[in-house]
Design brief:
Pfam families: Aldo_ket_red. One of its GO terms (molecular function) is oxidoreductase activity. The chain has 336 residues and is an alpha/beta fold. It has 11 helices and 12 strands. It has an 8-stranded parallel β-barrel, surrounded by 4 helices. Strands 1-2 form a two-stranded antiparallel sheet. Strands 6-7 form a two-stranded antiparallel sheet.
């Protein structure tokens, strides 16, 4: 497993990471035993970066990861945690809280659930409009000094916020959606990160399964994609047509659509680490196969022709969420 450094001052991590969100109900029910086995298989394959959020399953995801890691040597993995999103007992999403006092509370519970004495990368999941980002980052910096956090990251924020945060403390990476059909970061956000020496951990590299080559229209209870614009009737058909053009390219390279899409993200720069959302070992194995795929200039040109920038139908989130995403304030709707 090759390594990539997250930013100018960040840690070295595997060239691909595991996003664990889908193991806690966001895509419908998941098998606990298989999820833990997938985490173990991930580590055995040399993947070192595990990503979660304290609000995934209202703490379920952290407890699951904690169970999987309880007998694993601490130097074999790094954990990236997002905080701030509020939930209610029914599982509904509520307000967002990135106040320093709230952050310390979230961190305390995260450490307990994971069974760790420090978090490798800690990040606010979104920008809290009621709290200056400098206050949030400054408070996390205090946790770095205290030894509870090693590095500070950001998530789904725009260029101005990135600059303000980086003026307070070094930022190792920005976690943000980036895929063949979500390329909005290329306009402003990615250049800003590169200017400041900030890496990218790219989630949604398969567009939540839409460009995995395995998407089926049937959805299980609890699957949040039922509300996603790109999966709605009238949009999903156009998006799946793009997948079929990718399938032809994949066949020519004797690979899969998923591997092609992951390899494309990885090929956009050594400062980008794709996060794969596998919750089963077979999907993990397929995703890891992307690491053996080297895309040629001809491949990249063919992919660009098949899925040109802005080709996707529908926004990546529903209108309510799009309205509060700081990252969307700096990108063109045509390229997001």
């Amino acid at each position: 497993m090759k390594l990539r450094r997250l930013g100018r001052n960040g840690p070295e991590v595997s060239e691909i990471g595991l996003g664990c969100m889908s193991m806690s109900g966001m895509y419908g029910p998941a098998d606990r035993t298989e999820s833990i086995a997938t985490i173990h298989a991930t580590l055995d394959a040399g993947v070192t970066l595990l990503d979660t959020g304290d609000f995934y399953g209202m703490g379920h995801n952290e407890m699951l990861i904690g169970e999987a890691l309880k007998d694993v040597a601490r130097d074999r993995f790094l954990v990236s945690v997002k905080f701030g999103a509020m939930r209610d007992p029914a599982g509904n999403w509520g307000a967002y809280d990135a106040r320093p006092a709230a952050m310390k509370n979230f961190l305390a519970y995260t450490l307990q659930r994971l069974g760790l004495d420090h978090i490798d990368i800690y990040r606010p999941a979104r920008l809290d409009p009621a709290v200056p980002v400098e206050e949030t980052i400054g408070a996390i910096a205090d946790m770095v000094q205290a030894g509870y956090v090693r590095h500070i990251g950001l998530s789904e924020v725009g260029s101005e916020t990135i600059r303000r945060a980086a003026s307070v403390h070094p930022i190792c990476d920005l976690q943000i959606e980036y895929s063949l059909i979500s390329r909005g970061i290329e306009d402003s956000i990615l250049p800003t990160c590169r200017e400041l020496g900030i890496g990218i951990t790219a989630y949604g590299v398969l567009a939540r399964g839409l460009i995995s080559g395995h998407w089926q229209t049937a959805r299980t209870p609890g699957d949040f994609r039922v509300h996603s614009p790109r999966f709605q009737e009238g949009n999903v058909e156009q998006n799946l047509a793009l997948v079929e053009t990718l399938r032809e390219i994949a066949k020519a390279r004797n690979t899969t659509v998923a591997q092609l899409a992951i390899a494309w993200v990885a090929a956009q720069g050594d400062d980008i680490v794709p996060l794969i959302g596998a919750r089963r070992r077979d999907r993990l194995s397929e995703a890891l196969g992307a690491l053996d795929l080297t895309l040629t200039p001809a491949d990249l040109a063919a992919i660009e022709q098949a899925v040109p920038k802005g080709a996707a139908a529908g926004e990546r989130y529903d209108p309510k969420q799009m309205a509060v995403l700081d990252s969307e304030k700096t990108v063109s709707r045509k390229t997001s």
